[in-house]
Amino acid sequence: MNKIIIIGAGIIGMLSARLLAKAGAGVTIIEQGYAGQESSWAGGGIISPLYPWRYQDAVTHLAQWGQKHYPELLNDIHQSSGIDPEFIQSGLLYLDIEDELEQAQLWEKAHAYEFTTLSGCALKEVEPSLNFSAMASEQQAWFTPSIAQVRNPRLVRSLREDLRRLNVPIKQQTQALSFITQNGQLQGVVTDKGKFYADQVVLAGGAWSARLLEKYMQAPQIAPVKGQMIVFKAQPDVVSRIVLSKGRYVIPRKDGRVVIGSTLEFNDFDKTTTRDVLEELKQEAYRIIPALKNYPVEKQWAGLRPGSIDGIPYIGEHPELKNLFINAGHFRNGVVIGYASCQLLVDQLLGNTPIIDPRPYGLSDERLVNDCNDIDLRLAI
Ligand SMILES: Cc1cc2nc3c(=O)[nH]c(=O)nc-3n(C[C@H](O)[C@H](O)[C@H](O)COP(=O)(O)OP(=O)(O)OC[C@H]3O[C@@H](n4cnc5c(N)ncnc54)[C@H](O)[C@@H]3O)c2cc1C
After folding, report:
1. What is the pLDDT of residue 371?
2. Which residue of 50, 148, 217, 317 is 20 to 30 Å from 3, comparing CA positions?
3. What letter would DSSP give residue 324?
4. How far, in Å, is the centroid of ligand 1 from the Cα of 123?
5. Higher pLDDT among residues 174 and 133, named by residue
């Protein structure tokens, strides 16, 4: 039985651990903070890339595999953990995409997506709470009814509980510092709480992944991109669809709370929230769903996305250290593309036929850097 250490207990580390444990591997997770409290807690949980036509096929292939297999996985985790990750097929309404409509329609045909044009009464029927008074009578919207969401804090709690039942230990408050090697062979991980030995190591450290590697070897081009969010304590049915307009989204949760996001900020590892963004997100919420003016903002928070060039994650073995595998850099789409990325990684670790062609995600020379200060994702967005 292979002994595997996973660095990082976000959705990527925990889902990888689940798949490996179910395949019979002996897995331990090392987490510098607490399980599922970083980006995977902070995210919106939309099971679709926003504006999916803007992405390369490498992202689309992972997203489509995930969209197909998520319902079964989430049902399974719900049953085994007793915690409902709140998978809801809310559908996604796009407003204000006239400028890229042709590209969106071509993409939708190529990928067999249901993408319905709505206006007037039909639009009102699908989402009565939109700001109709501010809309021109001919304004159109585009609707993909199959798009679903999951509630991040519950997803990570259910995954954590599921791992407990599968006897996968999570060593919290334990930071991976370096790798144990002998004659060029990986033997395990050095942490601030001692050494952990293993046959294989998976780095699923989210936004922190490149910082750990750059001290010892070439690193993937992954850097933190902050996203601030707010949540309204509203009531069920104030809004029922996920609505996306001008880069801002509204996500209605099962209990009536409504999440609004999100910013893209380049401030290194700073997670502070700001008053300006709170005000801006509130105004955007009122612009899209005026009824939200009647409800208080309950909370504001920020998370650090593991930003990468074009949003294509790094999945595979490091070329400089055999048996060190990476699964990181999922950027804005770690939920929707995360499941397929974990399956693809596990296929490689166990020598199984991969679910999709792994080459676009590999750690080729041109995707690696010697110095994290050379990573500039502003150019990639
Ligand atoms: C505001 C916001 C909105 C988002 N919305 C969506 C969305 O709607 N849909 C979607 O698909 N995606 C969304 N995302 C993106 C998604 O949340 C991320 O891509 C995903 O959570 C990344 O998961 P991860 O496990 O790689 O990272 P993380 O959840 O950050 O986990 C990495 C873990 O590794 C640990 N770690 C790092 N280094 C070490 C070390 N040296 N030793 C030990 N532990 C270490 C960290 O402490 C952390 O817990 C959003 C993200 C944000 C911030």
Report:
1. 87
2. 217
3. E
4. 34
5. 174
Q: What is the pTM of this model?
A: 0.97
Q: What is the mean pLDDT of the chain?
A: 95
Q: Is 302 in the pocket of ligand 1 (CB under 6 A)?
A: no
Strands 92-95 and 140-144: antiparallel
Nearest residue to 313 (alpha-carbon basis) of 71, 98, 49: 49
**Joined tokens for residue 11:** 């959705």
Quick one: which of 374, 318, 271 has its CA closest to 33?
271
Q: Is 9 in the pocket of ligand 1 (CB under 6 A)?
A: yes
All domains of the chain, ordered by start, with CATH? Answer: 3-82+152-221+309-380 (3.50.50.60), 92-147+224-308 (3.30.9.10)
Q: In sequence order, what are the residues at sequence separation of 6 or more whose Cβ sits closer than 8 angstroms to the Cβ of residue 315?
A: 326, 327, 341, 344, 345, 348, 358, 361, 362
Phi-psi region of 120 (alpha: psi -120 to 50; beta: other; left: phi over 0): left
Query: What are the backbone dihedrals phi and psi of residue 91, each rounded to the nearest 5 degrees, phi first?
Result: 80, 155
pLDDT tens digit string along 140-190?
899 999 999 999 999 999 999 999 999 999 999 999 999 999 988 899 999
